[in-house]
Amino acid sequence: MKTVDQFDFKDKKAIVRVDFNVPLDADFNITDDKRMRAALPTIKKILKDGGSVILMSHLGRPKDGPTDKYSLKHIVADLSRMLSLTVKFADDCIGEEAVNKAGNLYPGEVLLLENLRFYKEEEKGDVAFAEKLSKLAEVYVNDAFGAAHRAHASTATIAQFFPNAKYFGYLMAEEVKNAEKIINDAEKPFTAIMGGAKVSDKILLIESLLEKVDNLIIGGGMAYTFAKAQGGEIGTSLLEADRMELCLELLEKAKAKGVNLVLPVDTVIADKFDNNASKDQVDSGHIPADWMGLDIGSKSVELFSDIIKNSKTLLWNGPMGVFEMENFQQGTKAVAEAVVEATKNGAFSLIGGGDSAAAIAKFGLEDEVSYVSTGGGALLEYMEGKELPGVKAIQS
Ligand SMILES: Nc1ncnc2c1ncn2[C@@H]1O[C@H](COP(=O)(O)OP(=O)(O)O)[C@@H](O)[C@H]1O
Ligand SMILES: O=C(OP(=O)(O)O)[C@H](O)COP(=O)(O)O
């Protein structure tokens, strides 16, 4: 891969696409700065070479042009602290202000441009908009893995204006390397653990994983649609009624391919969607009418943990229950601990998806697994076998 290591940035201006789409609370404090921390090595390498850095990113999904809530100005102070320098900020990503501030940038300085998505041209992958961005710098670097599945102006289109000066940042290279290990080099037994809210979000991934894995564990909210499809009673648990047929097809496919598809055998139930709800544990498919499943049960924990601990490759996407609530986090925590133990015994473990990453961080186990991806949708699409526009644009 052509990474920033292959270029000397001395006296060069680099425009670097990062994914600083970080969660902010009501007072605009960053609640998880992982994506920013992950981009620092690339920025520091360019500065150390004696270059200057123009950072561009999106934040959220603004629909009506410039909106204070979605301004990247809210992250300037934190970024400055992380880099131990004063990051400059341009109120716009193209136009006079951006051109002037970029033009006056000295080696060792960093300029952050305003949210790219304040222009609808960004998401359209507009060529003229990409060209304007490209004029701000001499080199293009893409380090925005979280947005690599988007064919947007700043992630893909812009690369054509730097035919001989486009590079992957370190984060992008690391993410691709780890994803490739799963896609092409998975040592067996290979176990995928799927969870989260919806079957519909993960269909393509499940189908593509059935070609590769030995074990496919399915927990979390999506497991109830499987249970219902198999004739079980699921009370008021999450259900995608229109996906029940598909669940049965996936079970058949798994059987035909010799994949061990494992569903929870029991479930922790609650009488309402609340941390303080009354709690009980029942076998899967035996949930009383007014109750809902919010976590996997203890027998499932044992069953899943056994398979996980005997695996050599692990891909985990999606929590086993509503881990945000203390009383329903046990299944997710136990699975995280099993993944950690397998990793200690030599397995390669990749965690992807915003909520899985949040869960593993909540349990303080981030450093105990092989790799936690900064990508949600990007990692899933990569695993589904799709080409990522952000990766392709640098490689072609
Ligand atoms: N049994 C359940 N009932 C309701 N919501 C659930 C259940 N299990 C998991 N969830 C929710 O699913 C969400 C995560 O789903 P998803 O976005 O698909 O995961 P990821 O971001 O890791 O891909 C979490 O907010 C979690 O609370
Ligand atoms: O947060 C992101 O993706 P994710 O929610 O899939 O992790 C990326 O910044 C991409 O954002 P988008 O899904 O609005 O294009």
Task: For this entry, give a set of tags.
396 residues, alpha/beta, Rossmann fold, 2 domains, 17 strands, 35% helix, binds adenosine-5'-diphosphate, transferase, glycolysis
Your description of this structure?
This protein is an alpha/beta fold and 396 residues long. The chain has two domains: 170 residues, Phosphoglycerate kinase, N-terminal domain (Rossmann fold), CATH 3.40.50; 197 residues, Rossmann fold, CATH 3.40.50. The protein is built from 14 helices and 17 strands. Strands 3-4-2-1-5-6 form a six-stranded parallel β-sheet, sandwiched between helices. Strands 10-8-7-15-16-17 form a six-stranded parallel β-sheet, with helices on both faces. Helix 7 links the parallel strand 7 and strand 8. Helix 8 packs across helix 9 and helix 10 runs parallel beside helix 11. The longest helix is centred in the first third of the chain and has 16 residues. Bound molecules: adenosine-5'-diphosphate (ADP) and 1,3-bisphosphoglyceric acid (X15). The site of adenosine-5'-diphosphate has 19 residues, from strand 14 and helix 12.
